[in-house]
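SAMPLE LOG
Freezer: B-3
Tube label: C17
Construct: single chain, 229 aa
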Amino acid sequence: MSILTENIAQVRRRIEAAARTSQRPPQAIGLLAVSKTWPAESISNAHAAGLTHMGENYLQEARAKQAQLSHLPLVWHFLGNIQSNKTREVAAHFDWVHAVDRLKIAQRLSEQRPAGMQPLNICLQVNISNEASKSGCSPQQLPQLAQAVEKLDNVRLRGLMVIPQPSDDVEEQRAAFRQTRMLLEQTNALLQTPMDTLSMGMSSDLEAAIAEGATWVRVGTAIFGTRTP
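STRUCTURE (predicted):
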């Protein structure tokens, strides 16, 4: 068994254990492999080990890997901050976008989604820890943003994404994820179609995220190892 295959099996065991502890079905939690900075070969190997959802942060790098791996039935998630001049390619080549924090970006993604494609799945990024260094709308801005995005034609508002301030304290981790879940529930009361997705939790805190309702955990290091420069 390769190191990558064993890493994936170990992450799956962690997800299953956390789900059992939280009395949630393990199949309710998706494993999104954060493959940024890793070559197409690593993604191909991850797919061979059973993963189909890949997350990328950098558009040019992602597009090169998509071209190399077009023969594989992969589902591509864009995780990075999106500049206005990148929306057309993101709209055309990804299935999910996890980091929309402005209406302008959502509008461009909707307008530029090619005809005949399924609506682009969108998660709104919330700056849950109010960090100046991180993107995301504020919790106060979320209701208005969500209601506006819901009305767009070619995107589907699926949920929220957060990257809380790092902490080794499990209770602090859970508090940030709990706040996100409560924000989703509160915002859903204002929407015609409720959101169903919480994209939260990474290699170091996925157990806390699952305990608070995560439906996607975004795992890079625990699958691929320490990232290359």
